[in-house]
Amino acid sequence: MNTEVKASVESSIPGVDSVTARSARRKKRSWLHSIKILALVALLGYLGVLVFLAANETKLVYPGSKYPRGTWEPVDFNHQEIDFPSKDGTRLVGWHLKKPESILPGNPDRTVLLCHGNAENVAESAGYIGDYLRQSLVADVFVFDYRGYGKCDGSPTEAGVLADSEAALEWICHNTGKSPQEIIIVGHSLGGGPAVHLASQHGCRVLVLQRTFSSITDAAQLNYPWLPVRYVMRNQYPSAEKIKTCDCPLYQSHGSEDQLIPIELARKLFRNSPSKTKSFNELPGLGHYDPLPPEYWYELREFVNQVDPPARVDSTARETPSVQQ
What we know:
Layout: H1 3-12, H2 16-55, H3 57-61, E1 79-85, E2 91-97, E3 110-115, H4 122-136, E4 139-144, H5 158-176, E5 184-188, H6 192-202, E6 206-210, H7 216-223, H8 229-232, H9 239-242, E7 250-255, H10 263-272, E8 278-283, H11 294-307
Parallel strand pairs: 3-4, 3-5, 5-6, 6-7, 7-8
Antiparallel strand pairs: 1-2, 2-4
Helix pairs in contact: 5-6
């Protein structure tokens, strides 16, 4: 029986059309029901991820480094451990690293305030970045812990970390007799947030930024492009906006292979700086956690010497400072 004849026969049989139509409708309803179930599962999963990230934001942004992690009693390391209160009375701890004793006459009286990253404490950052800074720049260095880090009390939040940085700047100015405009402020990774905040609010001698972001939400959005992190994150650190009011000299560096904070965010921050004396140092091949190369410290010293020239500078000296590990 050919197709035309078969269709004619079936159409002549009472109820065949209605049975076929009902079967098609059942299949369509079943298909739509499956789609709805899948959409509901996807939505619930998506909302579950949002709830998880929101509930764990503090741990993700501030993984922390509590005492006794780190070398808290280093040998032959000229420093003083300082207890001081934050703006709200929270107990904080910092290390005051004294400048090298064998300095040449005529070197400027430099003081550095170091805001470290989110996964270290003073006992870790002081022996690496802190010591490089004091030897490269021949400076006193004050590195402090945020609330919830090291030996500090409390738990970190953006408002708390910024209050802690304000207290640290106030401490170093009070104990050195200097104004904020005479302090070199250094921000490493997360520490770029409080460093830019301080420089925008009070000014500084030089702002030094290492591997930091335009905002923490920009970095999170690149890492989680399918999530509305800009609208759900409590911690923002809008450095790209704050730096627009900071015209102090800026020395910024970033690794070309940084996957955690892509270099495009660092460039965005740099572009927003209105400073007439600024330099961007792209570090080829470096990821976020790779050690800074020896050349970086020499180039940083050269930049600072231009802004804050010592009476005597040996332009041929390219020695890398010896740092205690």
